[in-house]
Every structure is written in C-alpha cells, then in structure tokens.
Design goal:
The complex is a heterodimer of chains A (72) and B (559). By secondary structure, chain A is of the alpha+beta class. In chain A, 43% of the residues lie in helices and 35% in strands. A 3-stranded antiparallel β-sheet of chain A has the order 1-3-2, with helices on one face. In chain A, helix 1 packs antiparallel against helix 2. Chain A is globular, with a radius of gyration of 12 Å. Chain B is built from 22 helices and 18 strands. With 559 residues, chain B is an alpha/beta fold. Classes of the chains: A alpha+beta (72), B alpha/beta (559). Chain A binds chain B through residues 9, 11, 14-15, 18, 53-54, 57-58, 60-61, 64-66, 68-69, 71-72, and chain B through 119-120, 123-124, 127-128, 140-141, 144, 147-148, 151-152, 178-181, 183-184, 304-310.
Chain lengths: 72, 559
Amino acid sequence: MTISVVLRDQRLLARIINLAPRFGCSLARIDARTNDDLTLATFKLEGDADALRRLDAKISQIAAQDAAFAPT
Amino acid sequence: MIAIRGGAHAVLEALEAEGVQTIFGYPGGAIMPLYDALYGHSIRHILVRHEQAAVFAASGFARTTGRVGVCCATSGPGATNLVTGLLDASMDSIPLVAITGQVRSNLMGTDGFQEADVCAITQPVTKANILIRDPQLIAREMRRAFAIASGGRPGPVLVDIPSDVLKAAIDEASAPTFTIAMPALPTLDRNAIARAADLLRRAKRPLAIIGGGVRRGEDALEQYRRLVSMLGLPHTATINGLGAGEPGDRHYLGMLGMHGSKAANLSVHRADVILALGMRFDDRVTGRTDRFAKEAAIIHADIDPSEFSKIIPASVSLAGDLATTLRALCDELERSRIPRFDDWGDEVANMWAPPPSDKVDGLSATTIMDRLFAIAPGSTVVTTDVGQHQMWAAQRVRPDHPRNFATSAGLGAMGFGLPAAIGAAFGQPDKEVVTVVGDGGFQMSLTELATLRRYKVRVKILLIDNRNLGMVRQWQELFYNERYSATNLSDNPDFVAIAKAYDIHADSVDREEDVDAALKALLAHDGPMLLHCICYPSENVWPMIPAGGAIDEGIESKP
C-alpha cells in the first residue's frame, strides 16, 4: 500500500514511522520533500490487509488534523 | 518590580481570551516566569502536589463542564509527569491544554538541567503539541492550541515554551495578525441518513449504544433522548456515555461490555440493527469482535471518520457532529412515521436485573455502592478511580447527565479519581462531588488531600478498602490459579489517621447496618471528608465477560 500525505508539521513524519510497526506493518520506502512549509511524504507500507486498512485510517486522521488547524 | 508585558503575560492574556478562570499546576524552574505573571493575577492557579494531579484535575474539570481544562508544569520531570494524564485525555477525547516550561532556547538539545524533549515524548499521546520559539507567536499559538483541543473530536494539546520566550518582551507593533479557523466538520450525508432510516424502518430488534460523544454538547444529549423516546428504542451506554438516558427511561439497559448488564449485552447479541453513536467499539465493550453483534447491521455515527470500520464493520457511516446527525435522523424518521419498538424494548428491558453480588462474610462493597447511589441524587458529580470499585460504581450510578460521571475509561489510569474530583469541584462549585476510590489508586494520589485542605474543596471521598488490588486479584483468582502475586495490601496504613493528618474530616465504617448513616453523614458534611469503608477482601465484580470471551458469554459468579 502506498500512502501520500501533505503535512504542515514535519514532525508527523516520525509519528507515522513509529505507527507502522505498532500496526504490524513495515515501511518499505519513504520519500519526503518540503516546499513552502508543506512536506509531501509518500510511504510504501507492507503488512496484512486489515492492518494496512487500520493504519491508513490512522494516518488519514493525523493528516486531517494537521491540515485542519494550520494558522492562516 | 517593573511589570513588563512579556511572553508569560501573553500566555495569561491568551488564557483570559479563552475564558479560562482556573488552571491546575505545579511550579518549577523553567516555568517560573509564568508563575511570576500569575502572582496576583485574576486567573486562579490551583497548586496540586504532583503534576499528574494537575492534568487529572484539568481532565476532571473538562469532563464535567465540557470546557477546555488547563494545567501547567515545569520542564523535564514536571512535563513528563503529565504524560499519563495526556494519554488518558487522548483516549477519552477530553479537551485539555497543558502548558509546560522548557529550558532556555540556547540550552535545548544540550541535555540541560531539567531538559526533556517533551514534544517528541508527547507526540503519540496528544492530539497536537506546539513548541513556541518566538514570543510574538504566543497569542496565535495559544489560540491554535485551544482550537485544536476543542475542535472536531476533542483531545489534549501540549504547548511547550522555553523560559527565555516566557521572559521576552512582546513587541506589540510587530505581533502578527492571524485567524485560526475551526475545521469544518464533515458535511451531513443525506443519503447516508436515508439509508440509516431505511435500516431502522425494516428493523425488528434495533438497539442504540451511546458513547462519550454525547458529552460534546447539550444538543447531542437532547437529540439522543429525542431519538430513543420517539422510537421506544432500547439503549445501552459505554462507560463514557453513562447518564445519556433520560432518568427513569424504562428502555435503558445500563452499561454494556465486560462488566455490563446482562440485558445490555444479550440485547446487543440479539439486535438486528445497532445505532452506535459517538463511540469507538473499545475491546472492553465488544469482547470478541468476531462474535460481536453478528446479526446486526451497524449504523455508526461519529465525528471522527477514522473510527468507521476500525474495529466493527459499519453498514452505514454517519460522519459529523452527533447533534446534527441525530437531528437529521430524527427528522427523517418522523417524516416516515416509523413504528415504535416498544414490544422489543419491553422484552429486553424485562431481562434487566441488578448486578449480582458475591455472598461475603463482612461489609460488601456492592452494598455500599447500592446504598450510595440510592441516596445521592442524579445531579451529584461522581468521579472514580480505576479497578473493581470503578466497575461497581459504573454498574449502579444513575447520573442525570453524562457530565456527572467522570472516570478514566480508555486508559484506566489509577490515581485519577481524587484529582479529577478536585477539578470537577472547581468546574461545578454548586454541585455535590463524590469520588469513589479504591485503596490501591487512592495511595497513588492521596497527597492531594493537601489540595483539598488548602482550598477547602467540598469533595467527598468514598474509599473502598478491600486491602487488595482487587481487580487484578479477581483475575488471579479466576484465570491465574489463585496465585496472588503482588496484589495483597493487607498492610495498608490507617487512612483515617492520614486524612486527619491533613486536617480532613474522616470516619470509617465496617458494618452493613452503619452504612446508610455513614453515607448520609458523608454527603451532609460541609467540607471535604473521607469515609473509609473496610470491606470484605475478595468480593468480585459480576457479571463479567472473561478475557477473550464474546458479549453473550458473561458469567455471574465464579465457575
């Protein structure tokens, strides 16, 4: 499974990296680059389908919260 | 002393702007500028005796008022002592803002005295954390912290501020203007509402489960009560949803789950449609997930879409604010004149029975609980610690509002009960506040008797002392061949003497015939008081779904 997220808070990369093994998944590849305070990160994750589904939901939650509360 | 408007003053102004009147905390080196600004300030600071009590008190305040609770601590050990409380708030979706002092900016990363990378430490236990390096950004970041804590699904936010930033002068002219937009809640999905209504229309045995989401607002509570009364719907609650049912509603089945009522658990097992509202299918609720409500289509309503199908697959997902969702669903059901479910509701309500108790040779803790909740009105704010007494209380408490019961539900953090009651008492000064604690958890927080004494907080402590870590002991008895490893507390101290040493009025009871009078005296006492209940040591909590069991496999006594 490949997940791409846009993050305002770069530290969330570490959060996602730490979450993967907690869900019984492993990280096969991470790509991240930052432009204009936004970090675009792509995670290639491996694991069983149910674990990947739950991890996907958690990462989506983190990314949504990060996006929702950015100052303007 | 010259008053300079520095970063610390900006923090307090930000708190005032949020309507904060009371904060709970403990001072230390790095946060001294904030404490200096607090000196003589209108924001009331409540000095606790351990930082963990500060965060639990803030949680008790938030849980019982619906407002954001605020606590503060210094850097390093002060900050790390907040971690358990932050995780507790995160698990139960409680809005908190924790402010920590940090070492000076130029010391950060050098292993300075009392330095901890608290943002990294708390990342998994907070909804967000914010390190403020620029004093000009304090107002903006504090506003953001409160918006995050209370917006959408609530949760804890930690704000870490180096001491030099707290001391730095604010340049008013260059302070940035800002807007923090509250995030848009998921838009109501009319099609999903129609599908949910259709499932209910065709249902024969529907059931509602209400969770902590109902505490988010009065509107959600009102719409929930409207729904269940409109349909004659049988309903049950998670531990965080207790109090959502209208007092006296005959179709309310009590709490479900591991120590839930037989009526609630068997109704879940038999239901053909389940409305799961503002709850997240915790494992203490579901038991074996592959056997949970196998005959039911699940309609899951939650503010956090990531909860859908996380544990239990949902047939219909209703993302959004619970009040909005329930209002739309009620309106749709009213329009379609759905028939009531009184027959089914009466059938399962007839299964309800008081929770069974062991026969004991001594004072029964369940008798005390039965009597307490018969005497205390539903408006009493009740907090608990964690363990057997928590379950006995949850089985019997009949709060008239979900904010009148506060417990560490998801995390199950011992030591919660007393400081949470202190926070509740400051949040609800006109209400009676009772905390039910066990002898294990009380010994994790009894230093807060000093806080009770100092502020004359009218908290009543009901100490259920069975001289055991009772819940662990119960599991050792039932599942570990009665090998009672490290659960015996037979050398407990004299709790009445301890309370009196803190100048707290205290009494004890060890005979059933004295319980009513002792409880009445406890509730009537004008000030903090401890009632020490010397209970039979090996009474168990029933019913119980054994670990790994399914929701229909509850047992009512030792096999």
